[in-house]
Amino acid sequence: MSDATPRNGRRGLFRKRAPASAPATPASPEPPASSADVPPALRIAAAYGWRLLVLAGVAGVVVWLVIEFKLLVIPIFVATLLSALVYPLVSWMLRHRVPRIVAVILSVLGTIAIVVGLVWLVVWQVSQQAGGVRARMGESVQTLRSFLIDSGVVTAQQLDDLFSGAFQLVQEQADLLLNGALAVGSTVGHLAAGILLSLFVLLCFLYDGATIWRWTLRLFPRAARPAVDAAAKNGWATLINYARTQIMVATIDAVGIGLGAFLLGVPLAIPIAVLVFLGAFVPFVGAIVTGAIAVVIALVYNGLWFGIAMLAVVLLVQQVESHILQPLLMGSAVKVHPVAVVLVVAGGSMVGGIAGALFAVPVAAFLNVVAVTLSSGSWRTGDDVRGDLIWSTVPRTLGRGDEQNDRKAGR
Predict the structure, then answer these.
(1) Are 393 and 330 in contact (CB under 8 A)?
(2) Please, which residues bridge with residue 103 across strands?
(3) Residue 205 near residue 212 (C-beta atoms within 8 A)
(4) Chain centroid to CA 402
(5) 201, 211, 237, 222: which is closest to 77 by C-alpha?
(6) Residue 172, CA distances (Å) to 79, 166, 177 in order
(7) For a disulfide at 93, which of 44, 103, 139, 364, Cβ 3.0-4.6 Å?
(8) Which positions, given as ranges, span the membrane (predicted)?
(9) What is the pLDDT of residue 191?
(10) What are residue 391's DSSP bridge partners?
(11) What is the pTM of this model?
């Protein structure tokens, strides 16, 4: 039998089957570019980018909710700041075995009495001196107008146009403020409701704040409660220190500038002092604005030299308060970042107007301390919060040495 392959293509009986040829595989497409082909810098930027977008979206929603519920949020913020301001007095009375309800009522009634007394003094002096101030300011404006015309700096027509434009601008701004006040519900009814709500929340915070916080803490997961509790307590201590510092600064500035205005014979000394006191609760910006108002009143009513003297009084009081009295009473660990505070105040005023400027710094300080507490892990050990804080104050304890204050400051 021949080993040759049969011509019909069939294999012989004892021949092996020839291996079948493998089917041709189609050409596979090019593999897609993997994440390794993306530059690392672009990956990092994209990761930060979408996280920042999420955070911006959350912040935008929070701001929108605050604006929508401003009639509820503003009284709660006012009550929170008042609680931080009054809480040291309540704690002092509790340490002296005064019943809690009595301590709370006395503290709130004392605060109301102080506010009512200041308002009565302002109304009384304005009613006594408003007519004379208005007439004297008219005379000063006419004197300035005659001086500018006689010196040839401007013409009478230009001055008339300037004064009319300024009057129109003031009128437009007054209408804008009135419409804005009505838009946010600052009618008599809404204002009364806001005051009553603030007083009610203030009483609840002072009398049963610990219970309210324990209930709020149960809203968080069990594993996160120790961190949230420590961060909130550090933030609350910061608010107390902030309120204590600002009330001290406001009192020093108001007494000093008001007394200087009285001795110089500047009218409306008590309203100027009250305005300086309230303006001090807007750090940096408030002191500048209220001091400028005092200087302008002295300049217009009493003349150039009295205006310069009032400016010297304002600068002297602010320098003594910031460089001598504040370190003496609060210790050397008062740490405030001026740039951060000014930017926070400007942003708050852009978003919420006067209320935004008032609450911007305490809210930012609270959030800053909370963030540093959580990120540094100090909530695990109970150590003092260390880091870059927008507002960090360590009150000086009278009768004790500087060594203990330094330990409190973490130095």
Answers:
(1) yes
(2) none
(3) yes
(4) 30
(5) 201
(6) 33, 10, 9
(7) 103
(8) 48-67, 73-94, 101-123, 188-207, 254-282, 288-316, 328-348, 354-374
(9) 76
(10) 336
(11) 0.69
